[in-house]
Amino acid sequence: MKHWQELKIAALLGSQKTAAVLHWPEQDVGVLGRALANQPSALLQQLALMSVYQRAGQLPVTLAPTGAAASDARPYASAAMSRHLAYLLGNEGQIYLPLWLELARQARVLAPRRYLPALLKLGDQQKTWRLQIADVAGARGGWLAQHNPDWRWLLAGQFDLSSPALTEFWQTAPQASRELLFERLRAADANAALGFLQQVWAEENAATRKVLLEKLRAGLSMADHDFLENCLDDRSKAVKDVAVDLLARLPESALVQRLQQVAARIVHIRKGMIVKHIEIIALDSLSPALERDGLEAKPKRVDNLGEKAQWLRDVFAGIGLDWLNRHCTMSAETILEKLLHSEWANAIMQGLMLAAKRQRHQDWLLALLHADSVKMPATDSELLPLLSPDRREHYLLAQFKADKKTGAALKTLVALCNAMPSWSWSADFTVRVMESYQSLNRSGAPLSYEFERQVFPQLLALLGRCGDAALGLQPNQYPPQVLANWQLRRDLQQAFSTHHEKN
Amino acid sequence: MDLRKSPVFYGIVWRIFKFKKMSGHDRQDIGTQEQDTVALPLISPEQALQYAPDDSSVKAAKKLAAVNHWQSLHQHTGADGHSLIWGEIRGSSLYQSSIILTGNFHFACNCPSFKRPCKHGLALLMTYAHSQHAFVGQERLPDWVSKHLDKTSEAAAKKAEKAAKPAKVVDETAQAKRVAARENKVEAGLQELQLWLDDLIRSGLAHAKTLSYSHFQRMKQRLIDGQASGLAALVDELQSALAQTDWQQLAAAQAGRLQLLLSAYQRLDSLPDALQADVRSLIGWNTPQDQVLATTPTSDRWLVVGSRELETEHHLRYRRQWLWAVHQPQAALVLTFTAGFQPLPPPLPLARQFDGALCWYPGAWRQRALIKEQGMPENLPLPSNLGYPSLAQALAHQAEALALNPFLAIFPMLLDNVIPQYHDGRWWLCDHRQQAVPLQIQGESWPLLALSGGHPLTMFGEWDGQRLTGLCAWQDDEIISL
Question: ipTM score of the complex?
Answer without folding.
Answer: 0.80
